[in-house]
């Protein structure tokens, strides 16, 4: 069942260019502790990110990506501590709330209207790193942040894929140091990557045949449903 979830999440990633962990984490969290699901999904996501880097057609904004990465690297260790220290039920509840809020903000096209670009980037990077370390869901702050800027599609894609790859590389040693990662999980992540990669290919094919805006709305609905499911699982 885990590999079915990873396949579905990979398909969403391929079609919408984001959302792998947002889709997979709530579903895997129904069957395994977040302390297991988060490192596993981070590594599978890193493998996927490596494959997607070859799809980049434009150079990323290195200044923005560097600032995001530096501030994100400050947040990851704190997030990892939260993952280790917090009770799994409490953390699932928090993740569920975050997913519901993220789905609503993304669906409404929320834009940050106060402060300068540098402040937005630093705060967005830190929050992304914090959520990355705690629950592997570092995407929403970055997606919301980049939606504030008039970036062309290829630059947006280059920025987000480059940042996600680099912050994922940084997160793995933090999980290893915290005792959350082992050899068995590494091999499981390789098998999981196979399912997710197949989903990615299918998602890329879907992307060519479906209206992007409609698919994103469907994705937001799935994220919302997944967040609700995660919160419901707390009481089961």
Explain what this protein looks like in three dimensions.
The protein has one domain (2-234). It starts with a helix and ends with a helix. The mean pLDDT is 86. The protein is built from ten helices and no strands. It has helices spanning 2-16, 20-28, 34-53, 62-85, 88-108, 117-135, 139-146, 153-177, 183-207, 212-234. The relative contact order is 0.23. Helix 1 runs antiparallel to helix 2 and helix 3 (34-53) packs across helix 8 (153-177). The chain has 236 residues and is mostly helical.
Average pLDDT confidence is: 86
Query: Rg to the nearest angstrom?
Result: 16 Å
Q: Main sheet, how many strands, which sense, barrel? A: none
Question: How much of the sequence is in beta strands?
Answer: under 5%
Helix percentage? over 70%
Contiguous helical run count: 10
The number of distinct β-strands equals 0
The unreliable regions are none
Short description:
The protein is mainly α and 236 residues long.
Topology (SSEs and partners):
Blueprint: H1 2-16, H2 20-28, H3 34-53, H4 62-85, H5 88-108, H6 117-135, H7 139-146, H8 153-177, H9 183-207, H10 212-234
Offer a few descriptive terms.
10 helices
């Amino acid at each position: 069942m885990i590999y079915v979830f990873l396949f579905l999440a990979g398909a969403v990633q391929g079609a919408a260019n984001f959302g792998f962990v947002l889709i997979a984490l709530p579903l895997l969290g129904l069957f395994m502790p977040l302390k297991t699901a988060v490192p596993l999904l981070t590594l599978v996501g890193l493998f996927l990110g490596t494959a997607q880097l070859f799809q980049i057609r434009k150079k990323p904004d290195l200044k923005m990506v560097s600032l995001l990465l530096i501030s994100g690297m400050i947040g990851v260790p704190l997030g990892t501590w939260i993952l280790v220290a917090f009770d799994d039920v409490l953390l699932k509840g928090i993740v569920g709330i975050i997913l519901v809020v993220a789905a609503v903000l993304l669906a409404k096209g929320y834009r940050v209207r106060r402060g300068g670009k540098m402040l937005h980037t630093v705060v967005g990077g830190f929050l992304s790193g914090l959520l990355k370390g705690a629950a592997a869901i570092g995407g929403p702050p970055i997606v919301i942040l980049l939606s504030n800027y008039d970036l062309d599609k290829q630059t947006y894609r280059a920025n987000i894929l480059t940042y996600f790859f680099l912050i994922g590389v940084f997160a793995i040693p933090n999980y290893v140091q915290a005792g959350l990662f082992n050899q068995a999980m590494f091999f499981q992540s390789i098998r999981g990557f196979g399912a997710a990669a197949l989903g990615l290919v299918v998602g890329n094919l879907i992307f060519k045949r479906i209206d992007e805006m409609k698919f994103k709305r469907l994705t937001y609905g799935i994220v919302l449903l997944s967040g609700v499911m995660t919160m419901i699982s707390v009481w089961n």
